[in-house]
Amino acid sequence: MLKALQVRNLTNWIKVFTYVSATVLLIANNTFDKLTYLIPILIVIFFINYWRDNFLVSNNKPIHHIWISIALELMLIISISFIDKNDINLLLFYICVSSTTIIHPFRYSISLVVAYIASMFFIYAMKNGFTSLTKSIIPMVFNYGVSIAFVVGMSYLVKLQIREKEKLGHMNDELEQAYKKLIENSAASQKLSVEQERTRMAREIHDTLAHTLTTLIVQLEVCKKLAALDPSRLPTELEKAQELSRSGFNDVKRSIKALRPQAMEEKSFFASVASIVNETMESTNVHITLDNLLSKDIKLQSQIEVALFRVIQESITNAIRHGQADEIKIHIKKDNSSLKLCIVDNGAGCINIKKGYGMKGIQERIEGLNGRVEFSSSQGNGFKTEVSIPYEVV
């Protein structure tokens, strides 16, 4: 839309330049007596053209108002040819037919051209006779026809360009609105999913862990009383309390396991990472190199496995979506008492890193495990994510 307006502003400046040039030529080639007639006509022509383009058309006035203004402008242009001998009227006609071609249907311009050329033939015949007209008609048709056809053709190309720019502007506006709506729906859906997960976890804790802990508290109270009243029953009741503790611990483990990604439900950490890498390469043109230096026999804490998996998953998504990368390298290794994860892509990169929801999520997960994460990038040199997590064997 902005570029279309810029094209129209350019044509308006060309109009102003042409009117100024016509004024200068009239002053230079006519006497004062003629100028007292020509200059007012030129001013009237200018205001008619300006009024039509910026008032009638902009406010969607009835078409007959536009036709009247075009006819009036054409008559005033033709009237100049009776006084001026330098074809300044042709220059003014270029403005009239050009603005008509750009703003109105093409048939308007054809009618305008036919009326103007016919009037020029008539005026020539009135001044020089019909015999002279028959001798000069071919040069006149060539001179008028070629120049006017060129102006009309160029104006029509400008019109097509304006239409295309406006169409692209409308499409961009629609895409922006659709994108905003998608983001809003995605945020609402994400918020709903979080609330649903919180509700599910709260229900799980209420139905299992809360009941177990409540029973355990009661059992410990019994043990406390038996220690004073009947110590012989104390070992049996303590055994019951211990069983309740084990049951609660298993409930906690089940709740934690429920938070694992679906991709890791039936697969190991290594198999899950390899799976998401292969699936990405199969569905996109991105080449991913996985350099895993960890032993396959190593067992990591569930929270670490989930965190590393999510970091890899989010980094691959960001590299493709935001960086348009076609090559990603993933490197995992154990370094002393830490696990090291490094993900590098060859995407567009950026000067200033703005942490969105995904990057903040990565940082929160890693810091929650007492680890650290660093993001680095530069324009045209891709993006790099480095993660370090304290290592513990389970």
UniProtKB/TrEMBL annotation:
Pfam families: HATPase_c, HisKA_3. Residues 303-393 form the Histidine kinase/HSP90-like ATPase domain. The keyword Coiled coil applies. Its EC number is 2.7.13.3. Keywords: ATP-binding, Coiled coil, Kinase, Membrane, Nucleotide-binding, Phosphoprotein, Transferase, Transmembrane, Transmembrane helix, Two-component regulatory system. Residues 165-192 form a coiled coil. It catalyses: ATP + protein L-histidine = ADP + protein N-phospho-L-histidine. One of its GO terms (molecular function) is kinase activity. This is histidine kinase. It comes from Clostridium malenominatum.
